[in-house]
Amino acid sequence: QVQLVESGGGLVQAGGSLRLSCAASGRTFSLYAAGWFRQGPGKEREFLAAINRSGGGITYADSVKGRFTISRDNAKNTVSLQMNNLKPEDTAVYYCAAGSYYNIDKAPNNNSWGQGTQVTVSS
How far apart are CA 34 and CA 51, in angstroms? Predict the structure, then answer.
């Protein structure tokens, strides 16, 4: 019911930064938790971060903790992922999702998903 569109991906050198944005429309986005996932070549989908509907609750995967920051602006219906100190291992298609804060990773089939944006980190 929530439509999501990611933007901000691209090609960066190792150590660089990117900011991804996810624009939501349709169902009131402020009622949903949001998250970011990625899927690298030959890999399974990986959970990165989640933020509850108010923005006061945040969870990060260990692989990105300290480097990535998730935030949201409910007035603009957007969720962002600031990515710093990027590594070649971060190369993947990045997806945003909307769903339940506690089940966004446990029950991903219940989420709304964006189409993804490619992030490539060169060495």
Answer: 5
Strand partners, 10: 119
Query: What counts of helices (H) and strands (E) characterise the chain?
Result: 0, 11
Residue 90 is given by DSSP the state: G
Q: pLDDT tens digits, residue range 20-47?
A: 999 999 878 899 999 999 999 999 999 9
Closest by CA to 90, choosing from 12, 8, 7, 21, is 12
- 47-70, pLDDT tens digit by residue? 999 999 999 999 999 999 999 999
Tokens of 26: 């349709």
CA distance 17 to 39: 19
| DSSP state string for 60-86 | E-TTTTTTEEEEEETTTTEEEEEE-S-
* CA distances, 43 to each of 24, 89, 100, 116 (Å): 27, 11, 24, 15
